[in-house]
Amino acid sequence: MKTETRAPGRALTIKVLRHNPADPDSQPQWASFELEEYEGMTLFIALNEIRDRFAPDLQYDFVCRAGICGSCGMVVNGRPGLACRTLTSTLPAEITLAPLPLFKLIGDLSVDTGEWMRGMSERLETWVHEQTTPDIHALEERMEPELAEEIYELDRCIECGCCIAACGTARMREDFVGAVGLNKIARFRLDPRDQRTDADFYQVIGDDNGVFGCMSLLGCHDVCPKDLPLQTQIAFIRRKMVTVS
Hints:
Helices cover 34% and strands 15% of the residues. The protein is an alpha+beta fold. The longest helix is centred in the C-terminal third of the chain and has 15 residues, at 230-244.
């Protein structure tokens, strides 16, 4: 029986910014690892190989490995993205990986986006607001398919944090809600079950930490791994909030 051999691929040098904030002796430093590339290799696969072969204590996050959970967000050659969706073949032979900025660092490439996202959601009250107590025994309210599709489009956000990491305003304003927050407001504004008015939405995003703080650099739109229409939604929400003010 003939044994198939795999043709040698590129030699990759992957530099990872390593630091463990829980260790008082740890200092941020670059660690380099040499790998052989093969067809279909993603950064997630490469990191697994690095951890298996060279650095068993390397910290990074993953759950779904399919661009759905948003856990593996990191800065790849200076650009935020998902490790599981990034093919090494689309990158140069030398790759630098760093944790997403602006979030609490757990260690190496692992950051706590959940704490930030929960705080933002609580501030913006990102849930359906009804004036009456819902009847759990009633039939679900009908919705036109076109409207349901519009809501679903905005609901595809996976809260990976890439838009925040790419946001110039977020670097200057600690409490800025970012594109992810404004996208959530746009989503609930569309939902007919939410009985809030534009005046109500203005109370949570009508300031410099909300839609009027956005400098429109649109790094969020450029790096969103789900290709959400963030540019359109931010502009639309800003126009609506101006009419309220």
